[in-house]
Structure to design on (150 residues):
């Protein structure tokens, strides 16, 4: 039995990459425009999905090729860091109706802005629960050095 994935299976990752490139070319013009909260929410959803994909690959690969799994683990952790930064950027962005910048503590209270603004917080908290179960605090705080954990 082969250790690699079936090459005949449909691979959607290249399509997702092409869609992101196409989106950037069409929707992110040059110039000093502020990123919208909707865009930050969509990017956060993308990174949380990517984190889930890397998590699945890390779990499967760990049993067969530990050195590769270590690198996938590091990539998964860095994607989580990026998702955390996007979540923070979302809360730092002005609200579209009032231009007011909300307090970051409102997110932890449960209903910072109500639906649909809450979706990013719900998604982030669900993903954070998984991250806390699968990582140690030192995994999440250690700066990346490129060294192998084993």
């Amino acid at each position: 039995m082969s250790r690699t994935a079936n090459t005949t299976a449909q691979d959607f990752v290249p399509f997702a990459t092409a869609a992101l490139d196409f989106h950037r070319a069409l929707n992110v013009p040059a110039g000093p425009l502020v990123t919208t909260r909707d865009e930050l929410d969509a990017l956060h959803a993308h990174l949380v999905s990517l984190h889930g994909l890397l998590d699945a690959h890390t779990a499967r690969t760990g049993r067969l090729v530990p050195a590769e799994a270590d690198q996938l683990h590091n990539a998964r952790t860095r994607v989580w860091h990026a998702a955390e930064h996007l979540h923070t950027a979302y809360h730092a962005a002005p609200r579209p109706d009032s231009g007011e910048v909300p307090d970051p503590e409102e997110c932890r209270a449960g209903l910072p802005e109500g639906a649909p603004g809450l979706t990013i917080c719900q998604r982030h908290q669900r993903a954070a629960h998984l991250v806390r179960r699968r990582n140690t605090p030192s995994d999440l705080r250690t700066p990346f050095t490129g060294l192998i954990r084993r």
